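As promised in the previous annual report, we have extended the structural survey to additional targets. Below is the entry for ATP-dependent DNA helicase RecQ.
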Amino acid sequence: MEIYKVLKKYFGLDSFKKEQAELIKEILRGKDVLGILPTGYGKSLCYQVPALMMRGSTLVISPLISLMKDQVDGLLDRGIPATFLNSSLDLEESRRRRQDIQRGMYKLIYISPESLKSPRIAGILRNLGLAQVAVDEAHCISIWGHDFRPSYLDIRHFIDTLPKRPVVTAFTATATEAVIEDILMLSGLQDPFQIRGNLDRPNIFFSVVKPQDDLEELIRIMDKRRGHQGIIYCQRKKEAEALSRILEHRGHRTGLYHGGMDDAQRHKVQEDFAFDRIQVVVGTSAFGMGIDKSNVRFVIHMGIPMNLESFYQEAGRAGRDQGYSESYLIYREPDFQRQLGLLQHNLQSEDRLLIERDKLVTMDRYGRGRKCLRSYLLDYFHSNPRQGMLGEKEESVPCGSCSVCAQQGILPSKVLDPLILQSMETLPQPVSRERLLLLFQEEELQTGGLNPLARYPQEKLAEHLEELVVQGQLLASPQGYALTAEGKRWAERMLPEDEQAPEETQPETPTQELFQQLKEIRKEISWMENIAPYIIFHDETLKDIIRRYPRNRSEFMEIRGVGRTKAMKYGEIFIEALRAFEEKNPQVRKKPLVLPEASPEGEEGFVDAFELHQEGKTVEEMARILGVVPGTVVDRLIRDHAKERPVDLQRIFNAALEKDILDSIRRHGPEKLKPLKDDLEAQGKSVEYLDLKVVLYKHFGIRKK
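The corresponding structure token record, generated without further manual editing, is:
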């Protein structure tokens, strides 16, 4: 079966990301691979899809017992035969699964590396004729890594003793050059095809705060995050216990997790979080390994962890659904000496101590520094796509999506647009420029939540208001600014579903009511089947159900993330809920529901613009048909192209200006559109913002709204 048919049938998806497709094709050619891809990118698909197309079973080696159960539950829910073996099983269940493995009943078998030491298990696997051995969390094999596990060193010996060598694949999300060298040397890979993806997590806003009172700052952040799913990492068990009690007392639904608790207690907290019974976990670094929860909106670190690898992996547990999310480091100077003392106490080897001390110093500099936080992280992992984009630049270009960039007046349109448009939607209009700029200086947004614009330069905000006028999302008059119809549509699409006022002050819209109903149905199914809600459907899949409003099972199967098995299992339940909702709300038949997005990168409108482009329509014709400004059409088609859909970029801008635009970018840099437009118009050239957007994307991969 062709890989795209497998993807659609079992996973309900239509396309792979570029790196996924390349890795899968090499695996199916019989080539070993090493994939270094960011958290939430879909590494598991890279070995799961080939596993379904190969003869024989795939062995997945993973250190994460909780992740094994989640992944196997997810595969079984999709109709894929899978199992796991680890210490959580009782003797009878373990024996039954070993027998089923011997009978060849599973396509994917998950085990821990320690299990390979068992002669019984190793013998069963040797006789099975494995098609693929997939090594997950491959950084655990390296002494240079932040999570070295000696048992990973046994993997190569196990592979060497197999009667017939399978394809060997290895995957990780965080790896420095030294760690990559160890993976290549120690894991048993033979001349592997390698992909080092961009490890950037653009949907996460990184912040460092240095408060006088860290507890007061935490409470302030948390009180503005009520209703959101989050994780708070503490460096000490006692601090985690104290903060959990304080937040519980303030009405937050919290759970406590640390290594001093017994297995049953830790498992209950993990399950409560997965099943949405609690919203925030306060824990030590022991929490989160194996958590595949998609809708975590924030991660807070109370003090620096031991190294950047741990920090980035923990921060990366936010926003796996690609929705806007936040990482906070509450920096405290004494933490460096405290962590150093722990290293000196716990490490006997002088060489190891020096390695770990250097890592701690690098972590501390992240908290102390004034450099763009994202660039600092990506430079460390040698994964900064912004570095040297224009050839002559040596230093990384600021990301425009972190607290340092916000304070320096560097925020891109994708951050500024939703903040401005959503805030304006809450105000009587028109709003004077002076009032708007005053509001943007406040610590809290009109829509709730912390305000990244509080320390943003006023003159740059004023410039951006004018850009929104030019782009057709604001209307300027002597009385001030007002949202256009297009601006209102953008504001509605950008607003996360959780960032609503409390129920007593803001009634639910029909869309929000339906979304809550679908979440309740998902929760009931999760209770009945004893699997986490996000394994059934991610929030984004529920939103797509509302957008597309399927009327039958075949239409339901076309929803992103559903697939054939889930359509058969759950289709009628959700379709019946849609029918009942439509009877209660007859206006749904006449007017399509407008659903808020978790991020401005949502999918709404892609298909229409893309199909019109395929029909040969011009940008202006598409804009008239869709009822949007031409710049919005270009935004959608650029995002289509980024998802590897066949968009002809040369057709959607004035290609005759390409060389002039590139010359202007070299003179003025790629950060802002207005200086480029002013420069070209001063030369007598008539250029539109959409021309600038296409050239920036085409040559530098920069996407601007």
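Confidence is low (pLDDT under 50) at residues 386-395, 446-450, 494-507, 594-607. Residues 204-369 form a domain with the Rossmann fold fold (CATH 3.40.50.300). These points will be discussed at the next consortium meeting with the crystallography subgroup.
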